[in-house]
Write a structure and sequence with these properties.
The protein has helices at residues 2-43, 46-61, 70-90, 100-120, 125-161, 169-207. It is mainly alpha-helical and 210 residues long. The longest helix has 42 residues, at 2-43. The relative contact order is 0.15. The model has no long low-confidence stretch (mean pLDDT 94).
Length: 210
């Protein structure tokens, strides 16, 4: 069992290094730049930003798992992130459109919106970063990695449709992406959800005045 696991893990690591690393850093850079630009955009119109923020809060309030506590909240956040990331990855099965990038852009918009509202309401950047970074340092790279898988699948499918792919390349991509999703993404989201549920509130309460 251990040998099988190590074989799969090494396969995931090798595939990432050979085929996904540049795409991952491109997506990460895209996310950071989009987050900054959206923050500046929302800061330029506080009234509109607050309106969008209220709508975002209403959407979050519809998620029943956010009403839970402890383990229920932890598992709810974990499953929500796993499903959302899985959908982002699967959007890559539509060739040419690179739909996973829209998912990444929407998350950057949310981050920018929240950051801007925190600033305009006098809460400040420090509180925003304290509330985001403890779990975000794990969750954001995992989110970007999920989009990377989708972008890579879209690229391979597009090449296949155009008859520009090598024999077995698409199958190799599917196996490589599945390994990374199961062995990397799921554990990362599990850990990020734990930190968000049990540690982020403690850190936030300790360093940000009530």
């Amino acid at each position: 069992m251990k040998e099988f696991f190590m074989t799969q893990w090494n396969g995931a690591e090798t595939y990432f290094e050979k085929h996904l690393k540049p795409t991952f850093f491109f997506c990460l850079t895209f996310f950071v730049v989009m987050s900054i630009l959206n923050t500046l955009l929302f800061l330029s119109d506080p009234g509109l930003s607050q309106s969008y923020f209220n709508e975002l809060q209403a959407l979050f309030n519809q998620k029943e798992f956010l009403d839970g506590t402890g383990v229920d909240l932890w598992l709810g956040i974990f499953l929500n992130n796993v499903i959302a990331s899985g959908i982002s990855s699967l959007l890559g099965v539509v060739p040419f459109l690179f739909l996973p990038m829209f998912s990444l852009a929407s998350n950057a918009i949310i981050i920018g919106l929240i950051g801007a509202v925190y600033q305009t309401n006098g809460i400040g950047w420090f509180a925003f970063l304290v509330g985001v970074l403890p779990h975000g340092m794990i969750e954001i790279p995992a989110l970007v990695l999920g989009v990377t898988l989708g972008v890579h699948l879209c690229l391979q499918l597009s090449k296949t449709v155009l008859r520009r792919s090598l024999k077995g390349e698409l199958k190799q991509a599917a196996i490589g992406c599945l390994r990374i999703y199961l062995l990397w993404l799921i554990p990362l989201f599990f850990l990020a959800a734990f930190i968000e549920t049990f540690m982020t509130p403690i850190i936030f309460g300790a360093v940000v005045p009530a």
